[in-house]
Write a structure and sequence with these properties.
206 residues; alpha/beta; Rossmann fold; seven-stranded mixed sheet; two-stranded antiparallel ribbon; 9 strands; 21% strand; globular
Amino acid sequence: MSRQKKNKRLNQQDFYPTPSWCYENLDIDWTQFSTAHEPCAGDHRIVDFLQQVGIQTTHTDILEGTNFLEWNQKTELILTNPPFQLAQEFIDHSIALSDTVIMLLRLNFLGSISRHDWWINHSPTALHVLSKRPSFTGGGSDATEYAWFVWDKTEKIPPGVSFVTPPTDEQRIRDNRACKIALECTIEELEITETVFELDSLLPFN
């Protein structure tokens, strides 16, 4: 899920690194899970976090040529910040593959008349609200409120609404720097790749 200007994506690849405090400060006992999957690995920060807390973690990412919507392996936990345009599809697919799904979404994703019937059948079991708006770019904070939406069939995560502890100054400074570097690096790599394809298309066939 990503910050956008009106009628214009800030990042056409829909890659926005998640500040690590957003998941580090979640009040969840990660030792309950032995396997996990990250559908939108990006720069692998969530993958690394899950592995550091002792969870065997697989991942997919469209930028690496693997499409989560074509991935069909069962796992105990799915944790991700999904692409805004495909959030509903990612939730549907995740719920089919895992008993515990945690997605970072805008709070206003709960609205929209077009999702009314879908929400009736897919109500989250818990919400972990980010009291502080995250910064996905390493600059200013995002323009909307966010929460981790939880769909849990196992009762490993208590139901209800809770609030994620805001970042410390140390976390904020670290994350702003890391997000800015990750975003700039990724865009640079993508621009190089696109240039190669453009030049290749100009070459005559052998």
